[in-house]
Description:
Structural class: alpha+beta
Number of helices: 1
Distance between the termini: 27 Å
Shape: elongated
Number of domains: 1
Strand content: 25-35%
Oligomer: single chain
Low-confidence stretches: none
Largest sheet: 6 strands, antiparallel
Order of helices and strands: EEEEEHE
Amino acid sequence: xxxVKGRTIATRNLLYGVEGNHAKKAFTVCIGEPYLITxxxxxxxxxxxxxxxxxxxxxxxERPHVVHGADGIQALELAVSSMESYLRRxxxxxxxxxxxxxxxxxxx
Length: 108
């Protein structure tokens, strides 16, 4: 989906492939800068100062994933820690590889 919300503050470059196709394509996982949640954003109640971070993908046809936290530090911590589990869920659909070695990203 190639959507990035706000400024990207961290990236990880990987390759992906689809089962049955040997071609590997490059993509980038992006973690966006924490931003304050506004009244229009979520469909749940939140305290003032609550923030969110967006995990998005450049070159991978997937929707961004938004992580919410009580403040900017928590939202960023949750985005970084949940990035791996989000990629793990996507690994049912794609195979992920390190770009320099071509080795599998997950040791399964």
